[in-house]
């Protein structure tokens, strides 16, 4: 039985499958009675905290621990699908109808149907923050699988269009997960959520850049972008869809930052203006898809203060 304190198990990024068919095959396995999310991977014995295989990078291990994530190498596809179903069920208790639809579409891409919501509408800001991040990690991992599929099984020299379109769907669901993650008042972020990620509770510089799943996504976006540039320098519909979905993720992230932080400093500590730091990262991530195109200048946002007041 899953409890609120049990970790969400994810595979190490290096062990993610390179085909969407692996996820769909895992989704087809019948769930066991009990929690409704299927048996634990492997022999059927319950995974316990002592079974965890912490990531080698100490910052990534700290990031996992903060959000209640444990890693296992046992049956990566099934582990990932179980995590995606569990985290979707948790977040579905409070997400908007539009965001829930995006999450359900992502599950369909992975060959699964939507689980029943678990938990209650209410919850502390920190609980929503952490549950939403766990959902985002699972969606990031399945996006990596789709991108790997696109480059491991290209059509001619071109990254697979179907897998690329699926990656775009999954990125849009990631934007929906971000919306769910931050569905609480700015005051709660200032007084409850942000202090939980600052010293002395966490290391200085605690940041989403410490996420192992984000690291894997950045690497895979670069692989996709180089392959696409070589095969399709003029661009194509699947490529534009992927770029637009990546921009949606940035827009959702920017909205959260504007609402909670405004022009204040980020936890990362690389500058006084968190929004400008985020925009620089967005330009860098977008360029991964089109390394042959000169990057646009990083915009200086003027609306951040207005966002924060609202």
Identify the strand order in the major beta sheet.
Answer: 1-2
Number of E-type strands: 2
CA-atom Rg in angstroms: 19 Å
Poorly predicted tracts of residues: 32-44, 301-310
Look at the helices and sheets and give the structural class. Answer: mainly alpha
Average pLDDT metric = 86
Q: Report the sheet with the most strands, covering strand number, pairing sense and barrel closure.
A: 2 strands, parallel
Strand percentage: under 5%
Task: For the record, give the distance between the C-alpha atoms at the N and C termini, rounded to a whole number.
Answer: 41 Å
* Coarse shape: globular
Provide a count of the helices: 11
Helical percentage: 55-70%
Helix-strand string: EHHEHHHHHHHHH
Please explain how this structure is put together.
- By secondary structure, the chain is mostly helical.
- The chain is built from eleven helices and two strands, in the order E-H-H-E-H-H-H-H-H-H-H-H-H.
- The protein has a two-stranded parallel ribbon with strand order 1-2.
- Helix 5 (125-152) packs antiparallel against helix 6 and helix 8 packs across helix 10.
- It starts with 7 loop residues before the first strand and ends with a helix.
- Residues 32-44 and 301-310 have low confidence and may be disordered.
């Amino acid at each position: 039985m899953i409890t609120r304190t049990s970790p969400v198990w994810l595979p190490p990024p290096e062990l993610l499958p390179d085909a969407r068919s692996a996820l769909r095959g895992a989704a087809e396995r019948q769930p066991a009675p009990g929690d409704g999310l299927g048996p634990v991977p492997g022999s059927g014995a319950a995974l316990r905290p002592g079974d965890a295989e912490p990531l080698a990078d100490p910052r990534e291990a700290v990031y996992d621990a903060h959000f209640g994530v444990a890693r296992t190498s046992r049956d990566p596809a099934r582990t990932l699908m179980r995590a995606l179903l569990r985290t979707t069920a948790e977040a579905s208790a409070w997400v908007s109808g539009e965001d829930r639809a995006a999450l359900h579409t992502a599950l369909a891409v992975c060959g699964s149907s939507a689980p029943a919501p678990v938990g209650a509408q209410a919850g502390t800001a920190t609980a929503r923050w952490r549950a939403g991040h766990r959902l985002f990690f699972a969606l990031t991992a399945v996006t990596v699988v789709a991108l790997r599929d696109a480059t491991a099984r290209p059509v001619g020299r071109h990254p697979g269009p179907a897998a690329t379109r699926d990656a775009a769907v999954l990125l849009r669901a990631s934007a929906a997960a971000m919306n769910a993650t931050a569905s609480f008042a700015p005051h709660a972020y200032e007084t409850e959520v942000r202090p939980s990620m600052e010293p002395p509770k966490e290391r200085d510089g605690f940041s989403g850049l410490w996420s192992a799943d984000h690291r894997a996504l950045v690497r895979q976006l670069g692989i996709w972008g180089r392959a696409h540039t070589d095969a399709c320098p003029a661009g194509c519909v699947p490529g534009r869809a992927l770029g637009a979905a990546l921009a949606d993720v940035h827009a959702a992230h920017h909205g959260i930052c504007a609402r909670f932080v405004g022009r204040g400093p980020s936890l990362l500590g690389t500058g006084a203006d968190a929004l400008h730091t985020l925009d620089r990262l967005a330009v860098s991530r977008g360029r991964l898809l089109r390394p042959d195109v000169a990057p646009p200048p990083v915009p200086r946002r003027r609306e951040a203060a207005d966002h924060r007041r609202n």
